[in-house]
């Protein structure tokens, strides 16, 4: 592996070409950094059309070829699955940096970091906020915990798809800050759901109320997203991800000896109301289209 600094390029491996991961990988591939990838399904590589990259046949082959191995997967168990894939333990070597861009449990991420440290591999828990739309706009927030030297090396890579990159201290710090953000988002979601319900029952335009409050002091990112990025088609899938994250938040707070119930309970109620809120907005849009 070549020695790298913030002024030199890195060879970056990427696994997880989903709605969020694909545009992140595209941004890396279009930068000065070299993009290498592995995908379980060859058709997943279609999202990289027009972007220079090198494809590898196995995760082990990918891990052996890169300076940084970035994983944008659903949960911590998926990280362990990659690390335990045949050939991968042998491919891990001192100097490699593994980055977890998914959202998970801070304690579990500390355990992953400790496991890798025994092999001389550095680990960053670097979850991102902004979803697929933020990734496509290259406006994500990357929230990072772990080895500071590894963070400094990887920060230029994070810059390719981020509007803000923040270092939050030792391993687990990135996940802790991301879970606090997600709990706040889901608590705000309950406020937005209540607003949509009230506007619909009052018989005033939900879209009009959403627009004016979204631009006023009562606005929030989640209110603006309802009926935009958050549609009925994806609401149920997002509820599953949100429920996973709010329970990670609660577990992390309890592990720290703190009471998660105020934010947790509001967050769960917000998640439960998501499909209703986007359905009310979609119904109003349908009526407006029909009356136009």
Automatic annotation (TrEMBL):
Q: Which residues form the signal peptide?
A: none
InterPro entries from the UniProt entry: 6-PGluconate_DH-like_C_sf, 6PGD_dom2, 6PGDH_NADP-bd, HIBADH-like_NADP-bd, HIBADH-related, NAD(P)-bd_dom_sf
> Transmembrane ranges?
none
Give all residue intervals belonging to the 6-phosphogluconate dehydrogenase NADP-binding domain. Answer: 11-169
Entry's Gene Ontology molecular function annotations: NAD binding; NADP binding; oxidoreductase activity
Q: Which residues form the active site?
A: 178
A Pfam family of the record is NAD_binding_2
Q: Which UniProt keywords apply?
A: NAD, Oxidoreductase
In this protein, which residues make up the domain named 3-hydroxyisobutyrate dehydrogenase-like NAD-binding? Answer: 172-258
User: Which family is this protein grouped under?
Assistant: Belongs to the HIBADH-related family.
Q: What is this protein called?
A: 6-phosphogluconate dehydrogenase
